[in-house]
Amino acid sequence: MRILISLVLSLCLLSCNQKKNLSTQENAKDNLISNNIEASSTHTAMSYNNDCYKDRAVTREYIDQEVKVEKIMNMYMFSFENSRWQPCEVPEEFHHEGMMLKVSGQVLEIKPNERRAGSPFNITSIIKM
């Protein structure tokens, strides 16, 4: 009987500890997001040409994603890991292959039966690293 009570108490303590770790991780995530928003708001606002993708739905949003500039098929694109983003127009000051940037924006849908070198991307901010 003592073993059973000890086992139940141990399980309760472990579950409480896991909840504490999860709440700590969530607080850290919230702090990271608020820091990214504060850091993004300190940079000067620029307007970017996103007119070529008006009729597409947003599939995902990124804030301060580290990317590398690549020139593919005479177009400048952003790449990271196994993804490639194709904005309407990359500002000329960022036309340097291999340049590392922090980019915020929206990845847009690719239409059925459409072939693209990269996913359509609306730029909201670019920061040179």
Fold and architecture overview:
With 129 residues, the chain is of the alpha+beta class. The protein has two domains: 1-42; 51-128, OB fold (Dihydrolipoamide Acetyltransferase, E2P), CATH 2.40.50. The protein is built from one helix and five strands, in the order H-E-E-E-E-E. Strands 1-2-3-5-4 form a five-stranded mixed β-barrel. Strand 2 and strand 3 form a beta hairpin. The longest helix is centred in the N-terminal third of the chain and has 40 residues, at 2-41. The radius of gyration is 22 Å and the shape is elongated. It starts with a helix and ends with a strand. Residues 17-25 and 27-44 have low confidence and may be disordered.
Question: Would you kindly provide a brief summary of this structure?
Answer:
With 129 residues, the protein is α+β, with helices and mostly antiparallel strands. Helices cover 31% and strands 35% of the residues.
Number of strands: 5
- Say what the CATH topology of the largest domain is: OB fold (Dihydrolipoamide Acetyltransferase, E2P)
Oligomer class: single chain
Strand order of the largest sheet: 1-2-3-5-4
Low-confidence stretches: 17-25, 27-44
User: What is the strand content?
Assistant: 25-35%
Number of domains: 2
Counting DSSP H or I runs of 4 or more residues, the number of helices is 1
